[in-house]
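1st attempt posting a full record on here, be nice pls
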Amino acid sequence: MPSADVRLDHVTKRFGDFTAVDDLTLAIADGEFFSLLGPSGCGKTTTLRMIGGFEDVTSGTIHVGDVDITELPPFKRETNTVFQNYALFPHLNVFENIAFGLRRRKVPTSAIRQQVAEMLELVELPGYESRKPSQLSGGQQQRIALARALVNHPRVLLLDEPLGALDLKLRKQMQVELKRIQGEVGITFVFVTHDQEEAMTMSNRIAVMRHGKIEQLGSPEELYERPTTEFVAGFLGVSNLLDAEVLGKGERFADLRLVDGTVVRAPSSSLNGASRVRIGIRPEKLRVLAAGDGASSASSDANALEGTVLDASYIGVSTQYLIETGDGNKMVVYAQNLETSGASEVHPDGERVQLTWHPQHTFVIPAAAATDPTSTEGETDE
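the predicted structure (as C-alpha cells):
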C-alpha cells in the first residue's frame, strides 16, 4: 500500500461521559478514496471533524503526511471539507465562491481566473461563473462546493455526507462524478456516509464503524463477500445467517451441520477454530429449485437446503423470495429474471423448494447474540 497520507494513532474523543471515538488507529493511503461507513452515532463524522480540526482530540495524535496536525487550527491544515449543506456564500456568484480561498491567499488575479476556469471544467460547469447559488440545482451546488474546496489544492479532501441532500437519481449520478473527479485530481478523499451503496460504489477501502470503533476494514468486495462480524454482514446488504456446528475441516472446505441436521460446506480458511459458528449466504448467491428437481438440477458439490416458499415478489431485475427452512429460519433469495424467464418459472407461495449454493459463497462469522446494524441505542453523536 502507498505511504500513509492520513494517520490516526489511538485517537479518542469524549463528550462528557460519552465516548464518541474510542482509541481509533487508522492509516489512509496517499491518493486513496477512503470511506468511513456506519449508522448514526457510530463516530464517523466526529472522526472526520477531528481530521479537519473542527473537533479537538481528547487523546491520541493525527498526522497528515509527516506533520502532526493534532493541535493545528483548521486553516493551517492541508485539508479542505465539503459539507452536506454545501455552505456556499449566497451573496457571491459561482466565480467568487470558487475564488474565495484564492483571494484570501492573495493569489494574483490572472492566476485566479485560470484556476477557477480549470475547476469549472473539472466539475463540468463551464459558463456558470456569473450565476448565484440560488440559481443552481442541488447537484450543481454540490459540484461548485467541490470546486471551491479543490481549487486550494488540499492534500486531503474531507467529504461529510455531501450527497445526502440529493434525490436518489442525482445521488447515483454524483457517485460516478465524484469517483471520476477523484481519479483526475489524484488526491486523498476521506468520505463519510451511512449509505453502504455510496461507499461501495466509490471507495478503494471502507472502514465500517460501530460504537466509536472500526468493526471491519477492507475493500468493498472483502467486506461484502467475507464479513467478519454479524453487524458488518447485516449492514452491508442482506445476509441469510444460520447457526452451525463444525464437524470437520478439510484442506479446502469444512463440513458444518445446521440446526435441522443438514450438512453443508464452507471454506476452511474462514474458520477460526470455534466449534460453533454462524454461516452466511447472500440472497443473490442462492438458487431456487422445485424440491423434486433439486437432485437432478443442482451441482453435485453444491450445498442444498429444503424449504417452503412464503412469498414471491416480482421486483423487476429479479424475483424476491422469502423461504422458510425446516428449523424455522426465513431465507431471502434474489432470483435474477433472465430474458427467457416467464411467469411459469416463478415458484408460488406454499411450494416446497430446494435452495442450493456453491460452498465458496458461504462466509463464516462467530456465533454471537443477534445485533441490529441500524441500532443507535445509547449513541448521541456521529
